[in-house]
Design a protein that fits this description.
Layout (H helix, E strand, L loop, with lengths): L3 E11 L3 H10 L6 E5 L16 E8 L1 H14 L7 E9 L7
Antiparallel strand pairs: 1-3, 1-4, 2-3
C-alpha cells in the first residue's frame, strides 16, 4: 500500500471563529476538516470561564501548497487580533488523491 506525504495543519482558536475559519480554509483549498473542543494554557493564559466560550482544534490534511496558503492567511487575518495558533506536520496518508 502506497503512502503519500501531505501536510496536517492544526489550528487552535477561539470557538466563535469556527465558521469563519472553516469558510476560509475551504476557500483556500482544503477539502475537509475535523473540529474538536480544545483546552489548555498558552501565552494568553487559561480562560477563566466557559462564559468566554471554548476553544476549538481544527485539523485539515492538505498539500504543501495549500498548507502555506492557510498559514499565510492566518498570519495576516487572525494572528494580530485573536488567540489563534497554528502548526504544520508532515503526515503520510493512504488515498492521497483525497487531499488537495
Amino acid at each position: 500500500m502506497a503512502l503519500v506525504a501531505r501536510k496536517l495543519v492544526t489550528i487552535i482558536a477561539e470557538g466563535f471563529l469556527e465558521e469563519r475559519l472553516v469558510r476560509d480554509i475551504k476557500r483556500l483549498g482544503a477539502r475537509g476538516y475535523t473540529i474538536t473542543e480544545a483546552r489548555g494554557e498558552g501565552s494568553r493564559g487559561v480562560r477563566a470561564s466557559e462564559w468566554e466560550g471554548s476553544n476549538i482544534r481544527l485539523e485539515t490534511i492538505v498539500s504543501p501548497e495549500v498548507a502555506e496558503k492557510i498559514l499565510a492567511h492566518l498570519a495576516e487575518a487572525y494572528f494580530p487580533n485573536y488567540a489563534v495558533i497554528a502548526y504544520v506536520e508532515t503526515v503520510e496518508v493512504v488515498r492521497g488523491e483525497k487531499y488537495t
